[in-house]
Every structure is written in structure tokens, then in C-alpha cells.
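Narrative of activities, Objective 1.

The group set out to show that a structural description can be obtained from nothing but a protein's sequence at a throughput compatible with the screening campaign. Below is one input-output pair from the validation batch, recorded exactly as produced.
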Amino acid sequence: MTNLYSRGDRLFVIANMVLVGLFTISTLYPFLYILAVSFSSGFAVTSGQVFLYPVQLTLAAYEKVLSEPMFWTSYGNTFIYTFGGTLMSLLLIVPGAYALSRPQLIGRRFWNLFVAFTMWFNAGLIPFFLNMRDLGLLDSYFGIIIAFAVNGFNIILLRNFFESIPKSFEEAARMDGANEFQVLWKVFIPLSKPALATITLFCIVSRWNGYFWAMVLLRSEDKIPLQVYLRQTIIELTADDEFAVTLLNADYSFETVSAAIMICSIIPVLLIYPFVQKYFNKGILLGGVKE
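Output recorded for this entry:
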């Protein structure tokens, strides 16, 4: 059998494999380091002994984190903001993208440009805060959920997917007497699972990692998400003189407690991602017909 690859092709493949390997290592190492820190003793971390695997293995940091009631409260709030916000986003993004994909939409070009404009320009931090205050959305669950429900990029991404669906699907549904809502629900949404899964993942990750605006807009401690709680924990432990004095004898430290919270915070995303990932490798159409 003749060799289908020349020497240059083989070198190119090898170089690509090396680069991908280095990139993978650089991506995984921070996670592995945080994982190792969370299971290491405070003394081992502060003395610089931890690099890749736990040193003086202990669960003290997790015991400290999981024993705090505010950890569970903030964890529950993060679930509310993440899944409530993602559901709200899909309820607004899907019909918005469908409307923008319709050729018969009056002023379609203007509305598409209007949505794209929001990707590059916004009112700014202070006007946005003042708007939230005037609408009475400060320090409320609904304020966090609704304020960041729509993203121009996600609308355009889904609109482009809707536009790629063959017209024959829609025409067949119209011949059966389907209205606009039925066309969207029974034709476009079932055929758009890969795009919807991608947008859902974008929304979940964005909501789960939301930090800045939650810190600015929320005043009640019982409404803060996990990321804000992590910041407060670090500040409180840093300012606690008694905790600083006991660090020499404690099995945990600032770093190990912070790492334990980080690991706990990313577990749900790691569990959800494999179920969404399977849609990424599917074709652009599910069960499409040939034109």
C-alpha cells in the first residue's frame, strides 16, 4: 500500500499534535492545581509544596466550607439565577430569533442591525444601575434573572440557524394548516436542537459565573450567589486576625478554603456539559430532506 502522506504532511500532523497537547496541558493544569490545593493541608500550600497532586491529604477545607450555612444558601441562589435566568433567556431569544429570520418581517434589516448594535455598544455601567434602581429591580431575584436575559450574539446565532433550515419543512407545515407558533414549536425547535443546546450552555455558564452585577445589585446576604460568597469569604478570612493566628496549626488556609469553594462551584457545570456536548457533533439539520 502506497503511503498517502508525504514527509511534509507527517511533520505537519506531528506539529499539530504537539501544539494541541501543549494547549490541553495548559488548559487542564489550572484545574488540577486548584483540585490539588483543595485536598492539601494549609501548611503545604502556603509553603509552596503543592504543584500537581495533593500534599498532606486532608478534607479540612471541604469540612470548613460545607459546614457554613451561607455556602448552601448562596449555592441555592446560584441555581435559581442560573436555571431561572437560562429559562427566561430561551423564552425571549427563541421567538426573537424566529421573528428576525422571517423574510416577511416589516423592517427586518433595521431590527437585525438594531440587535447587532447592542453587541458593540451599551449605555454604560452607571446608566444601567440607575435604570435598574428606577425600575425597582435592585436586591431582587427577578432583577438578576430578567436584566441579563437577552444577548444579541445568541439571538443572531440562533437566527442564522433558523435561516439555514430548508423552506420545504415550513411549507409542508403550512399546507397542513400550521400557524406561526406551530411552525416554530413543531418544526424549527425540533430541528434546532444543536443550536439550542449551544445557546443553553452559553447561558448556563454565563449565569453560573455571574459575579460583578450580582455584587453590585444585591444588598441582602441571603440573596447573593456562590461567586459573591467566595469573594466575601476570602475578605472575611483575610481580615480575621484570630483565623490568621491559627493558620500555623490549622489544616486549612485561605488558599485551600477558596479552592474548595471553586471546586464545589464548577461540579454542576462539569456534570451538565457532557449531556449538552453530544449535540455539538450532530449535523446542522436533524432528519433533513434533500432539496
